[in-house]
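Moderator note: this is an archived Q&A kept for reference. The question asked for a predicted structure of one protein chain; the sequence and the answer are reproduced below.
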Amino acid sequence: MNMNLSKLLEKLYQKLLSKKTKERSEHVILWIALASFIVHLLIIGLIHFNIITIDEPSNLLKNPIAAIYTPFSFILVYEVYLLIYYLPKSTSIYISKQYEIIALIIIRRLFKDLSDLSLSSNWFSSKNDLQFTYDILSSVVLFYLIYLFRVQRTRVYRTNENSKNHFSSISKFISAKKWIATALVPILLVIAIYSFLNWVFGVFQPLEANAISFKNINNIFFEQFFNILIIADVILLLFSFFHTDEFHKVIRNSGFIISTILIRISFSVSGIINNLLIVSAILFGLSMLFIHNKFEKKLVDEIQESNEIED
């Protein structure tokens, strides 16, 4: 029974998350992104020349700059797929992908901010101009924090024993991560399709009918997906106890979950609080990884000193 389940898992995993599938998905998404950009520009042109009419169209359907928003959205969905792809391979790369996604969401939001700019002399009294300021500053800070996270991510110190029990626990933990990653792919597809259809319905319906669902376009898809991600992270944390009970690793993994929760909470607020929560989430995750690496280095030094004494 266990052998059959293992074979089924491996078959599904190779079908959904193999390198070949990743490369095919990348090409498909790039073509979809290009097509969506052209379609968005055409719709803006048709509205501009009054060939089609939409009741109270948003700035996304008025300003050609905003057309960049649509292909960027499809690219972001692919980035979420990459996050799932790297989940069984490396926890730190998986978390890094979360941070890259939220940074790209901010960059995408800048295209929307640009279409909303009032460019008045009273810059700091305009809500849209202020949001643009918050987002452009946050994007620079996030870019640097993600760079620092990558630097820390590459500083890996091996402290575990090469025992059979150790390799067995790693194998089970990787298998659990593969199950979770494989389950996340269809969930990603369902949420993405539902969000897209809901977004299209929201664009072409009167404002009163979709005021709640269309309140914040930047939250569409990602708010729901990060809810799922938190559950997956908690399950991963519990499974990690079968692999290791080392204090610094448990704290690091717990810290990453808190970081993900802070990112999810950021979708519930707007303005500068949204930006501060996102920056705080990544700064917290970076701090956890930095201290974890200090712990690992200390343990390696202690092992080396012990071996030298024995020699």
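Archived answer notes: Residues 21 and 208 are 41 Å apart (CA to CA).
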